[in-house]
Structures are given as structure tokens and as C-alpha cells.
Amino acid sequence: MTEPPRPPHGPVVHDWAVGPLPGTDFDPVPYRLLHEEPVARIRLPHGEGHAWLVTRYEDVKLVSADARLSRALTVGRPITSTTPHTLAPAGGVGRADPPDHTRLRRLIAPTFGRRRITELREHTRQAAEARARVLLDTGPPADLADDFVGPLSATVVAELLGVPAADLGRVDTWRAGLLAHDTTAAAGESVKRQIAGYFADLARHRADHPADDLVSELAAARATGALSTPELVSMAVMLTLNGLDAVRNIVATMAYLLLTHPGQTARLRARPAGLPRAVDELLRFIPQRNGVGMPRIATADIEVGGVTIPEGDAVYVFYPAANRDPAVFTDPDRLDLDRDEGPHLAFGHGAHYCAGAQLARLEAEIMLGTLLQHFPGLALARPADTIAWRTGSVNRGPEHLPVTW
Ligand code: HEM
User: Fold this and answer.
1) Measured in angstroms, how far is the CA atom of residue 239 from the centroid of ligand 1?
2) The model's pTM
3) pLDDT confidence of residue 20
4) Would you tell me which of 71, 81, 136, 193 could form a disulfide with 47, CB atoms 3.0–4.6 Å apart?
5) What is the pLDDT of residue 190?
6) Looking at the DSSP assignment, which residues form a beta bridge with residue 304?
7) How far is the CA of 16 from the centre of ligand 1 (A)?
8) What are the pLDDT digits (tens) for 334-364?
9) Choice from 354, 359, 363, 394 to test ligand 1 binding pocket (greatest atom count within 8 A of CB)
10) SS (H, E, C) the chain
11) In this predicted structure, what is the pLDDT of residue 88?
């Protein structure tokens, strides 16, 4: 006699294939879950088993601020994930818990402090003006992603860390290898070794020849025993990847959205003081990444949105979905550059809140402000639906952004 089917253990597990998405379309899987099953079990293309996905604004805040969820415990576990290899290295700030996490964040705090940000603001402004002049002198068309946003974000992160301009090409090749979804685990490890070797050498050099940059500060901290070499390398890699890739993609997407919402952009041009608010709305609206980032492990049974997540399970929060929660944002799928709701969660929440949020905001404001000011007739050089978008990589953004003026 056959046994009757047993009731399923826990809720259904949803497959999230993380397919290619055009433009700024929201991924249908987390979108549906936000509206239908805000605390759900998912299986991503790589890794093993299932994890929980939390999508509602208040639940996402709760989970990301709850110290009973650990990042350190993810190290060495084959958790279901978007990429075949783990992007964030063990020892990195993203995968540490207190007290290590607190120590690492303290070490980089001066780098993102008022003095350094003021300097960077001025240098970024000068660099953006200079780039704009080159484009104006050369004449249209131009690629805003490759000829404006990309090089500017690279300049900023190079200055912040102290990466010589001549090395940026190499670093950018490693970035592309590390962030591609089809990079195998072995290839990912090889790229990580190369980039780790590069930053270890740079830190050795800066230990003997210190300059006013982050790698010099970290090298000095290492000399006192305040951090280890793997921690130093992980920090440098994390900051480089974010500074190069996240900013390039998101600011290029912001420019695309301004160009495809001409009415709202005309109002913004007429009232430049509205730019910081517009940047925040763009951050809220843009689904910045393919798939979902770093999980946490529940160290106790944790109740979220009426569901008990058992101790030992992996949990993801999806910040872009929280930013579309209708309980917090009116008509959340509409871009509204005058919106005054939130705050959005594009930079995360809790202890792991983005260390570069202030820097990213200032880069976006300066780049978009410079474009609006110097290019009154700026327009896409091709129909919006023919723009190619990066697929198969962690951060979403246009391959190129051809414009004319
Ligand atoms: C618009 C661009 C950016 C966006 C949307 C963004 C967003 C995020 C998000 C969502 C997190 C993860 C929060 C979590 O783990 O729960 C994060 C973490 C982080 N970001 Fe950013 N980021 C951006 C730019 C930058 C820049 C420019 C830097 C520095 C150069 C940076 C440095 C970091 C670091 C170090 C962390 C890890 C913090 C920790 O785990 O304690 N980010 N960012």
C-alpha cells in the first residue's frame, strides 16, 4: 500500500531564475512575492537548498536591524544564491558580525568623514566640469555611460583609495570578471586572487610611502594590528567594486530615466534645488541589481510578518522591493521626482548600511547637475527601447547610453 502524501514541510519554495530584464523593469518574481507572499521561501540559480526572501518595507527593516541574524555564519555555507561564487570575501565587512564588523567600520569611518567628503565633492565637481567640456568640444554624439559617468566614478574611487590611474584598466577587468553571473566558482577564485595580490602589493608600497588615501590608512592600521591583511584586501576590493560598478550603473540609469521623463526633467532643470530630492527618488525607483545580495543566517527562531523563520535558515532581504511597498510609498511604481516619502532603503538598513551612501549621493548629484546645467538639449540618440542593458551581471545598468544635444 502506498503512503498518503505527507503535508509539505513549510511553505512552497519559489524558483527565482533571475532572467535578463529590459530597462528598469522590476523583476516579476520579487514583485509578485511583495504583493502576495512577503515572507517567502526561494531557490536561486546557484548554491543549495532554499532561503527566505523578505520583501516588505517594515519587515526588511526589522530583519536588517536584528542582531540575531548573522552574516559571519554565511561563510563556508553553500547557500542558494544569484552567483556561482560568493562575491563578498570572508573577512570582508559585509560578512562580519560585531565586534569585528564594528571594528572594520570604525577603521573606514574617517575616509567617509566630513573633511574627505568635502575634498572629494570639490574634486568630483572639477572632474565633472572638465569631462563636460571635453564632450562639448568634441560635439555629439557621446556615450554618457562610457564617456562621462564611468570615467568619473573611476576617478573618484581611485582618489579615495589611492589606486594609480594607470592601474584602473586592470582593476576594471577584474571587476567585470567578478561581477558576471557566468563566472564559474574557479574563475571567480582566480580573479579574487589576482585582485587580492594587487591590493596587498599596493598596501605594502603605501606602508613605506604613505599618502592621503584609504589604502595608506588601512596599511597604517594593519601595522598596529588593528586589522589583518585579508581584511585589508577585502575592504579595498569591496570599496572598489562598489565605487566602480554600483555608481557607474546607477548614475547612468538615473540619466536614462531623466531623459525618458522629459516633463519632470524640465521642471527639475528650472528648479535645481530639487536635485537632492530627485536623486533620492531615483535611488528608490531604480531596481539596482539582478537577483539579491548577501544573505544572513537566523541564530534563533525569528518571527517576521507573522511567519516563523527557523533557527539556522538563510534569509535574504530585497531592498528594491521594500522601496516599492505601497504601505509606505503612494503609487510606488511611478517615478515622481518631487516625492517626499520614505526614507528609501536603496542603501540598506541597520549595521550594514552602505558605507559609501553619502559619497554615492554626492557623485550622482554632481554628475546629473553638471549634465542638466551644460547640456540643455540633452536627449537619447536612439529610441529608448533600443538601448541595450547589462544582463548576467550583478548590477543592472545600460551597456551604453548614446546621447546627443
Ligand atoms: C549608488 C550606489 C550605491 C548603492 C545603491 C549602494 C548600496 C549598498 C547596499 C544595498 C549595501 C548593502 C547593505 C547590506 O548589506 O544590508 C551596501 C553596502 C556597502 N556599500 Fe554601498 N552602495 C553604493 C555605492 C557605494 C560606494 C560608492 C561605496 C564606497 C566607495 C560603497 C561601499 C559600501 C560598503 C563598504 C558596504 C558594506 C557595508 C557593511 O557591510 O557594513 N557603496 N551598499
Assistant:
1) 8
2) 0.94
3) 87
4) 81
5) 84
6) 307
7) 23
8) 999 999 999 999 999 999 999 999 999 999 9
9) 354
10) CCCCCCCCCCCCEEECCCCCCCCCCCCHHHHHHHHHCCEEEEECCECECCEEEECCHHHHHHHHCCCCEECHHHCCCCECECCCCCCCCCCCHHHCCCCHHHHHHHHHHHHHCHHHHHHHHHHHHHHHHHHHHHHHHHCCCEEHHHHHHHHHHHHHHHHHHCCCHHHHHHHHHHHHHHHECCCCHHHHHHHHHHHHHHHHHHHHHHHHCCCCCHHHHHHHHHHCCCCCHHHHHHHHHHHHHHHHHHHHHHHHHHHHHHHHCHHHHHHHHHCHHHHHHHHHHHHHHCCCECCCCCCEEECCCEEECCEEECCCCEEEECHHHHCCCCCCCCCCCCCCCCCCCCCCCCCCCHHHCCCCHHHHHHHHHHHHHHHHHHCCCCEECCCHHHCCECCCECECCECCCEEEC
11) 66
Burial grade of 95 (CB within 10 A; 0-12, 13-18, 19 or more): buried
Query: What is the percentage of the chain residues whose pLDDT exceeds 70?
Result: 96
Q: What are 14-31's pLDDT values in tens digits?
A: 999 998 898 999 999 999
Q: Domain 13-404: what homologous superfamily? A: Cytochrome P450 (1.10.630.10)
Q: Is the sign of the CA dihedral 351, 355, 358, 362 positive or negative?
A: negative
Q: Is residue 293's pLDDT more than 70?
A: yes
- Residue 140 alpha carbon to ligand 1 centre in Å: 34
pLDDT of residue 296: 98
Instruction: Provide residues with CB under 6 Å of ligand 1.
Output: 64, 93-94, 105, 157, 238-239, 242-243, 246-247, 250, 288, 294, 319, 346-348, 352, 354-356, 359-360
Residue with cell 573606514: 108
Task: For residue 95, give the ligand 1 atom closest to its CA.
Answer: 40
Interatomic CA distance for residues 212 and 271, integer angstroms: 37
Quick: pLDDT tens for 182-237. 777 777 788 888 888 999 999 999 999 999 999 999 999 999 999 998 889 889 88
